[in-house]
Amino acid sequence: MGCFHSTAAREFSGHENPVKLASETAFSVSEVEALFELFKRISSSVVDDGLINKEEFQLALFQNRKKENLFANRIFDLFDVKRKGVIDFGDFVRSLNVFHPNASLEDKTDFSFRLYDMDCTGFIERQEVKQMLIALLCESEMKLADDTIEMILDQTFNDADVDRDGKIDKTEWSDFVIKNPSLLKIMTLPYLRDITTTFPSFVFNSEVDEIAT
Amino acid sequence: KGSDSPTIINAFQLIGMSSFLDLSGFFEL
Fold first, then answer.
1. Which residue of B has its CA nearest to A185?
2. Which of A16, A130, A210, B10 maximizes the CB count within 10 A of its CB?
C-alpha cells in the first residue's frame, strides 16, 4: 500500500484519497493519480469547481457541449452515483473502473443492465429498447420501416425474454450476454490499461511512494 | 436445401453501435 504524504492533501484536497480508491478498484495508485489529471481537465473545462457537470461530460466525450442524447444522459446518470447532478472524483474513478479490462464480467453485466433499464424499473422493457433503437437510427441517420423495427424487437425478446413476460430481468440479461458476449464490447475501454502514459503529468504531482505499494 | 432465413440482428447489437456509448472520447486528447 502506498504511503500518501500529507503534502499530497493539497493536490487532492476535497477529493478521495488515491490510495483508498486504488484499493477499491482495478487501478494502481499511479493510475488513479493519472485519472485525476484527466478529471481535473474535464471538471475545469466549463466551470472550474472540481466536479464534472453534464455539459463538461458531453464536451469531454463528444467535443460538443450541447449534444443532448439519450445514451449520454443515461451514462452520466450512472456515473452520478450520489444523484447530485455532478460527478465527483471518487465516483468518476469507481464508475470508470467497471470499464477496465480487468473488471469482472458481473460488474460489466450489472452496469449494462442498469444502462438499458432507462426507467430504473428493475427490468429492460420493450418500449425502452424501442426508444433506444430509434435513438440509434436517428443518430446514424438510418431509416428502418416500423415493421422491421418490430421484427428486430420480436427476435430480441424471443431470444432474451425467456419467461415471456414482455420484459428482461437481471437473470435473463446475464444469461443473454453470456450467449452474446459481443453485447459487452462497449463495457471495456482498452485505454484504461495505459492511462499513466496517456496522462504522464501525474508524475509531477504524485506524492505517493509507490515503492511501499 | 436449407432454409435461407436471414439472421436478424438483435436490438442490443445495433444499440451498442451508438457512438454515444463509446467512452474512449475521454482519452482522445
1. B16
2. B10
Q: Is the pLDDT of residue A2 over 70?
A: no
What integer is the mean pLDDT of A138-155?
94
Q: How far is CA A117 from the centre of its chain?
A: 15
Q: How many CA atoms lie within 13 A of A9 on its CB side?
A: 3
Q: What ipTM is given for this predicted complex? A: 0.84
DSSP sequence for A137-203: HHHTT----HHHHHHHHHHHHHHH-TT-SSEE-HHHHHHHHHH-GGGGGGG--GGGGSHHHHSTTHH
Domains belonging to chain A, first-starting first, are 16-101 (1.10.238.10), 104-189 (1.10.238.10)
Q: Is A174 exposed, middle or buried (0-12, 13-18, 19+ CB in 10 A)?
A: middle
Residue with cell 460527478: A87
Test mutation, B12, B19, B24, B27, chain A, max A CBs within 10 A: B12
- Chain B hits for A133, CB-CB cut-off 8 Å, are 11, 14-15
Optimal mutation site among A75, A76, A136, interface B, most CBs of chain B within 10 A: A136
Q: Which residue has the cell 430504473?
A: A120
Percent with pLDDT over 70 in chain B: 72
| Number of residues written out for chain A | 213
- Residues A157/A172/B9/B4 CA torsion (nearest 10 deg): -80
User: What are the CA-CA distances from residue A146 to residues A40, A88, A133, A150, A151 (Å)?
Assistant: 45, 41, 11, 6, 9
Give dist(CA A138, CA A156) in Å, integer. Answer: 20
